Amino acid sequence: xxxxxxxxxxxxxxxxxxxxxxxxxxxxxxxxxxxxxxxxxxxxxxxxxxxxxxxxxxxxxxxxxxxxxxxxxxxxxxxxxxxxxxxxxxxxxxxxxxxxxxxxxxxxxxxxxxxxxxxxxxxxxxxxxxxxxxxxxxxxxxxxxxxxxxxxxxxxxxxxxxxxxxxxxxxxxxxxxxxxxxxxxxxxxxxxxxxxxxxxxxxxxxxxxxxxxxxxxxxxxxxxxxxxxxxxxxxxxxxxxxxxxxxxxxxxxxxxxxxxxxxxxxxxxxxxxxxxxxxxxxxxxxxxxxxxxxxxxxxxxxxxxxxxxxxxxxxxxxxxxxxxxxxxxxxxxxxxxxxxxxxxxxxxxxxxxxxxxxxxxxxxxxxxxxxxxxxxx
Amino acid sequence: xxxxxxxxxxxxxxxxxxxxxxxxxxxxxxxxxxxxxxxxxxxxxxxxxxxxxxxxxxxxxxxxxxxxxxxxxxxxxxxxxxxxxxxxxxxxxxxxxxxxxxxxxxxxxxxxxxxxxxxxxxxxxxxxxxxxxxxxxxxxxxxxxxxxxxxxxxxxxxxxxxxxxxxxxxxxxxxxxxxxxxxxxxxxxxxxxxxxxxxxxxxxxxxxxxxxxxxxxxxxxxxxxxxxxxxxxxxxxxxxxxxxxxxxxxxxxxxxxxxxxxxxxxxxxxxxxxxxxxxxxxxxxxxxxxxxxxxxxxxxxxxxxxxxxxxxxxxxxxxxxxxxxxxxxxxxxxxxxxxxxxxxxxxxxxxxxxxxxxxxxxxxxxxxxxxxxxxxxxxxxxxxxxxxxxxxxxxxxxxxxxxxxxxxxxxxxxxxxxxxxxxxxxxxxx
Lengths: 377, 430
Hints:
- Chain A has 377 residues and is an alpha/beta fold.
- In chain A, 36% of the residues lie in helices and 15% in strands.
- In chain A, the strands form three sheets. In chain A, strands 3-2-4-5-7-6-12 form a seven-stranded mixed β-sheet, sandwiched between helices.
- Chain B is α/β, with parallel strands linked by helices and 430 residues long.
- In chain B, the strands form three sheets. In chain B, strands 1-4-5-9-8 form a five-stranded parallel β-sheet, sandwiched between helices. A two-stranded antiparallel ribbon of chain B has the order 2-3.
- In chain B, β6 (260-261) and β7 form a beta hairpin.
- The N and C termini of chain B lie far apart (48 Å).
- Chains A and B meet through α4, α5, α6 and α11 of A and β2, α7 and α8 of B.
């Protein structure tokens, strides 16, 4: 997989709101970087990034606690909370019975009184059993109480498809939660994203839905020294330009960022320079960054794994049409998962989600308007 | 003390006045008429008491005996002092007059949407909430006006909220079903059945967390969760009974069993209608009480709240009560038998308390009349205040969505939208 070496130009520890386009990145393949740069950045898996973020936030603030199924003695269903039980004890790393509605509501109730719960859903598919609490008692409470009661809660867990887990374990919830006012929805990609955004989420006074990806947990990314600092956090609501380009803008989040970057490499060989935006935040959506990019490249391709209708890509397309219609040289291309419940068979599952070649094909279509439409893309 | 308590707590059985103690076999023989018709059947209060628990029950029998109005008791064995009696009476009158005024205002168009009134159930609210401290929390359902009033939210604030004015307790943004007050620890006001129960359990969890993790040694705050008979069939209820008992949380689950969930009779909806029995199934005491008698409710409440405060865990209290009005002001209330309504109207909790106070010479007729007059004035003043209050301004639409309004994201000029001073003046398009 592509490792990306990032060098920040004039960056601060916590990125403050600056003008859009301030993320200047140079990208080199990691293999050459390791040979040429002796102060090579440390590598960290997303799993370790999340674990270290949780650890540091729990150490810094005794009000932070983790609650969920298997987070304690099992060390986390995906080992994200490994070691936390031994360090902080069972009062702060709470193993629950299988009661999503119950413990999500308990988290909200404790947040009402000023604790900072991190509620883990084993996958976000199970959050559907608790969705009443995420939306009705977490997201809406600050508004209904007119600011008297805010809910500093984080709901986190893996989202979207894994590998061969079937229809009920594979749905992406970014679009559902992204439509709810009062929620913040974050979608990290790399380890740095995971660390910075989780810390920001835990410190945030509002409910945050933190959508991770199971297949990214084991992937390693280089992390800079400042990302390893315990006060590191990323701003909520700012997208990141992972790769600069001038011919087409590709927006993606979570695992699809990796696919988009690979597609961008392939497209480069064919003479198309793609700009890849890692959304990082579904709500609030960084419309400013997307629009500035589209005004530069004049073409847009949105990539997501969720179902196509009413999806994240639909929202991005609408926002670009509203803000930058005159700048578009081609209709917006939208790649999403297939409009079917996820099949189990490996070949069918592969067809049900965007692959790198789908991204490449759609990008070419946006650039030349040639090629056929396929069911998946 | 760790949270993973594996020990099973023997349910404490509290003896009830007027009820014979029946053996386990007899307890199963509950006679009913038709299983479908609710209204003509009275609920029987039956508990099974094992021999081992008779000892622990004996301490409570003494109090229960006091409730049986034996004439040979002297005056100093009254259930409550004069001050307490007047406080409870005033609270119940406030609840009744306020709700009646709500009905009037609704039919005059000042109030709108869904309004659910509490008439007839005042004994439960006053009986429980008047025993709480300010730091204790109350979580309720959509039938929450009187819970908020009992907890101390001013009548003006509640009335304004119902009128949708900006001076309401939630600035007009919550409404009838969403009463919140951080100052008085009223944590809502939830429209979804059962939604408040996990939230209440979370508030109780916080109390325990503060004591054990944050080392605030004197944190003994109790949470009360109020909900109805229909909710006792909902999944979240059982999830929370389990976790509250498992972790011994300081919470009291108060079921306001008014026998009807809109038009669905409790007996048509529930396989075993005796809700208090669900407590021992999860390892906590289950108690049934006559919810039309505020003194009995108060006695049970004292024990349950005391249990929670001492860290002994949750209690499930089923209050048999009745709502004199329909489910909401939009409910024509055609399914309930008028004879049933008349029967419960005869047991009006306010009349009963008044009778008790006068007969036991705790208060005079004149004092009670003075309270009623005072409350009338309070409620009228609340209406006037609400009438004269302004409606929310346009800029209020976008306020309070987030505690940190950077959640509205970045505007086209690259800065956070909330930093633009005109942000809330514009349209709702974000």
